[in-house]
Design brief:
Layout (H helix, E strand, L loop, with lengths): L1 E12 L9 E8 L2 E6 L9 E5 L4 E4 L1 E6 L10 H5 L3 H17 L2 E6 L6 H10 L7 E4 L4 E2 L10 E2 L2 H14 L4 E5 L1 E2 L13 E2 L3 H13 L3 E6 L2 H9 L4 E4 L5 H10 L2 E3 L2 H6 L9 H11 L5 H8 L13 H10 L4 H16 L16 E4 L13 E6 L2 E3 L16 H5 L2 H7 L1
Parallel strand pairs: 1-4, 1-5, 6-7, 7-8, 9-10, 11-14, 14-15, 15-16
Antiparallel strand pairs: 1-2, 2-3, 5-17, 12-13, 17-18, 18-19
Helix pairs in contact: 4-5, 6-7, 11-12
């Protein structure tokens, strides 16, 4: 048997490479990469391991562009969780990373954690110490002094401090820089009667963008409010997160500068639900945002803004796709957004986001067809990560005994031990 090759036999492939039309194929994987999509009945000349996926659907691994592993889908006041010890936050992040992978999400962008825990978790997964998705981390977000998200940010004021702080983020190994661009929801209406006001100035954003792009990183900005969205877009950032109160002028600025919108609608709708126990004040203030959040996507689409898919702290990937579908994207466009488009936004389209020759074998095998019903994305039969085919519950922490058992080693050392005694 060829130990490096695996064949997923009987698959119905759904991906950008097939035009999202179902195609019966055998997916051939060599090591971590897809090397062929063969017609049904092709022979196993190499003696590869065979996995029968007859009647199942193979899609690209899902990509979530807005995660917070240290407080992902956790119950209770969010600021209390952020203020907990670094150890507790790290353990929670490790647990959530494993859960995310089990759901078929093979790549995430982690957009803010205390003490750079997200970047260290990313390194731990890359080294094989933890199970989890590929993580592109933004480390600790940058905010003006006294700004939004105080428990997880690094404060900076003025262009020079933003420039220095951006270099520090990139130096930790982060692939993205996250900026807190606005404060929201506020306790009362501010600019143009909106429950938000802009915090960061254009020269501060421009300084961070210059550093990031010089060093091969990208910039995401938490931003709401019509005026602030336009300001941030004109500064040349890569993505705007949330985008509540997006105006037509802001959307045009996003198109002109090539800025992507990642709306995270499910995160802001769900956070006001009683099940999350965020508190009455939190729910009342966030309701002002939730009531108008979905208006941003049609405005963005009408202008030609690219739409990415992310969930934020309590959002959920299937719920997010359903909401985007309600905003006008058909099911095929939704599936393309959470795979191919998201990969392009990350700059990884030559590695992930599709089922095609030469790409990383990051795949999900489903029992049901997501182009008929998005709930099918919950019917995960296998997760394939870098060519490794796993049942969801087989994704778990390793033993940690890297050297193996001691006794076999000692058996061969008995004579040496006697001589040295």
């Amino acid at each position: 048997m060829n130990s490096t090759k695996t064949r997923l036999v009987g698959a119905t492939v759904l991906a950008a490479s097939t035009g999202w039309s179902p195609q019966k194929k055998t997916v051939v994987i060599d090591g971590s990469r897809i090397v062929a999509l063969e017609d049904p009945g092709s022979s196993n000349k190499d003696g590869a391991r065979t996995v029968d996926v007859g009647g199942l659907y193979v899609i690209p691994g899902l990509i979530d562009l807005h995660c917070h592993l240290t407080f992902r889908r956790t119950i209770g006041p969010i600021w209390q969780m952020m203020a907990e010890s670094e150890t507790i936050n790290a353990v929670r992040a490790a647990r959530n990373a494993m859960t995310v992978l089990r759901q078929g999400i093979t790549t995430i962008r982690e957009l803010g954690a205390p003490n750079n825990i997200n970047t260290e978790i990313a390194k731990s997964i890359e080294k094989g110490l933890l199970p989890g998705p590929r993580i592109l981390s933004a480390g600790s977000p940058l905010s003006v002094t006294g700004g939004h998200a105080k428990n997880i940010v690094t404060y900076a004021d003025g262009a020079e401090e933003f420039r220095k702080a951006s270099r520090a983020v990139v130096a930790t190994g982060a692939k993205w820089i996250k900026i807190i661009g606005s404060n929201d929801p506020t306790h009362e209406p501010h600019e143009d009667g909106q429950w938000s006001f802009g915090e960061v100035d254009s020269d501060e954003v421009e300084a961070a963008v210059a550093v990031a792009h010089k060093w091969g990183a990208r910039v995401a900005v938490h931003c709401m409010g019509s005026r602030q969205i336009e300001l941030v877009a004109n500064a040349g950032v890569d993505t705007i997160e949330h985008g509540v109160y997006l105006s037509e002028a802001g959307a045009r600025a996003m198109v002109d500068k090539g800025v992507t919108l990642v709306p995270t609608i499910s995160g802001y709708l769900e956070t006001i639900w009683p099940r999350w126990q965020r508190g009455d004040d939190w729910a009342a203030r966030h309701k002002h945002l939730a009531d108008v959040h979905m208006e941003a996507v049609p405005i963005a689409r009408a202008a030609g803004v690219r739409i990415g898919v992310g969930t934020d702290s309590v959002g959920e990937i299937v719920h997010e796709l359903k909401l985007i579908h309600r905003c006008g994207l058909d099911l095929q466009a939704c599936m393309n957004a959470v795979t191919k488009t998201n990969a392009e936004i990350l700059g990884l389209e030559d590695k992930i986001g599709d089922v095609d020759n030469g790409l990383q074998a990051d795949l999900v095998v489903l029992r049901d067809n997501p182009l008929e019903n998005l709930d099918a994305l919950r019917s995960v039969e296998y997760v394939v990560q870098a060519g490794r085919v796993m049942r969801p519950l087989d994704i778990r922490m390793g033993s940690g005994d890297e050297a193996g058992d001691s006794e076999p080693w000692l058996a061969g050392k008995n004579e040496e031990l006697k001589l040295s005694a």
